[in-house]
Amino acid sequence: MKKLLIFAALAEAGFGLLLLAYPPIVARLLFAADLSGAGVIIGRLTGMCLIALGIACWPDNDSRNAFYGMLTWSVLAMLYLIIVGVSGSAGILLWPAVVVHAAIAVGLVVLRRSQIAGK
């Protein structure tokens, strides 16, 4: 599970850096929409939050908190992106983002269950 948590933490922090650097490209790729004004500010704040999430979910000796934090984020992000996509605001990267979040969530649950079963 540690490797998956590291991957997820790096992926979220990396995406956060992209949002922090240039939110309009993220909006175009995910939602096929333009971003300006307050949307750029909120996009950058969201990027900062994803960087913080990546740091907070970095696994240590007891990765329970990292597990729950990343699982919660992955499930909520997946569900919200599905809602956005079904409403018609899908860019080229929206559905791949849904798949990545779903894969991380399923992988975390499977690995956690195998850890519990092995104890």
Account of the 3D structure:
81% of the residues lie in helices and 0% in strands. The chain has 119 residues and is an all-alpha fold. The protein has one domain (2-118). Helix 4 (64-86) packs antiparallel against helix 5 (94-118).
Give the SSE map.
Elements: H1 2-21, H2 23-31, H3 38-56, H4 64-86, H5 94-118
Helix pairs in contact: 1-2, 1-3, 4-5
Number of helices: 5
Assembly form of the protein: single chain
Per DSSP E runs of 2 or more residues, the count of β-strands stands at 0
Mean of residue pLDDT values: 92
Q: Could you tell me how far the N terminus lies from the C terminus, measured between alpha carbons in angstroms?
A: 14 Å
What percent of the residues sit in helical stretches (DSSP H or I)? over 70%
Structural class: mainly alpha
Question: What is the count of structural domains?
Answer: 1
Largest sheet: none
Portion in strands: under 5%
Order of helix and strand elements from N to C terminus: HHHHH
Shape: globular
Radius of gyration: 15 Å
Low-pLDDT segments: none
